[in-house]
User: Fold this.
Amino acid sequence: MGSGTTLVYCDQTDIGRRRANNQDSLAVVPPVSPQQYQSRGWLLLVADGMGAHVAGERASKIAAEQVPLIYEKNAQRSPPLALLRGLEQANTEINLRGRRQPEYLGMGTTCTTLVLVPRGVLVGHVGDSRAYRLRGTTLDQLTRDHSAVWELESQGGLTREQAERTVGKNVITRSMGPHARVEVDIEGPHPVEQGDVYLLCSDGLSGQVADEEIGLFLKELPPRDACAALVGLTLVRGAPDNVTVIVAKAGAEEVSANVHGAPAWALDEDYQPRSQKQQLPWKQLAIAAGSLLIALLLSPWGDFVRSLGDLPRTICSVASAAALLVMVAMVVMAFVGFALPAGDGRSLASGRRLGQGPYRTYNCSPRAALVEGIVASAESAADGLAPPECDRMLAAATRARKFIAAGSFHEATVAAAEAIAVYSRSVEEARSGDTLRVPPPSPPGGHHDERG
Assistant:
């Protein structure tokens, strides 16, 4: 069984270009031993705060501190129950602090938490931050946005763009903190394969970078470079919001264990697991045996039935066939009930999972148009730089275009990431006061979103 020691991850958060403070928070809690990996695994978390002044920042920090702490304290419970308790109790803490301190009244935060345990990946989720999985060239969104746009689009009749024009991009329907109770989505466990890449992000990334672009960077770059390129691309495109990203790549020690016959996971406090020595389903087996006996007695090939007239013989044949069907149904029910207990909503049998995810799937195969869009954004942003940064950025973009023309999309993606890195460094230098070459874009008019 795996020890959880081969996961490679990187995390990064950025204030963006138009915010006065960073209301995003993150947490990565690795297991300190193989035994701890077996009991509670890895925990990754991204939270995006909401509220005026420092309220949103405070709310997201509480989530990033309390969810891992409460999850750890509940490690004796099943992972989905411990994760649920972590999110619910953190919500209570945020709500209480908001009611006690006027400056924090109404504060809230999104919270997306990924737990990787031997049985697979679990996701606990509130809000519109996201969790993704890249497998091969397929990017799966493991969470659904708790937003008005998602609801309008899911109901049909409106495209995403139409829904955004109708209600605005940043109207969320569920968050932690504003209310004493919160509904939490628990998804999974999703089995883990070697090479799977997981990404957690705030909407500062998903609002500026297309899903296919996210998948491209995750596929073509190692976690550290992919993380930097994704955050950098939001800066290239103006970064109107805080942006936070965690990228984690599973290795051989994180591949999901064979869970056949593993104990069910409790989903409430009072659940009592079945004895390891389960009782045979005698009732179904008895009905099956009785049905088989009836089928044999009424078989059209038996001497008694063959001695009857045409009509009685037909009736017996139909009854025999019906008895055989009942027998087969009872045998199947007995097997399923014994081998895979269905549960009653209080437990999760091995091999089964919670939630309906993945909710959206994208083909992220490298292609000219996909890389071209990233390169075009980099070239446009280079106009705001002074030499020599502008020259270096355009030189990297030119190399990327040559690779695109040659069909070398991996090399083109690497070159595009190099161009983005030049811009990111220039932004950091401007913030530190070493240079003023990259002035932040002017805020657009219209709706002001107080989320980080």
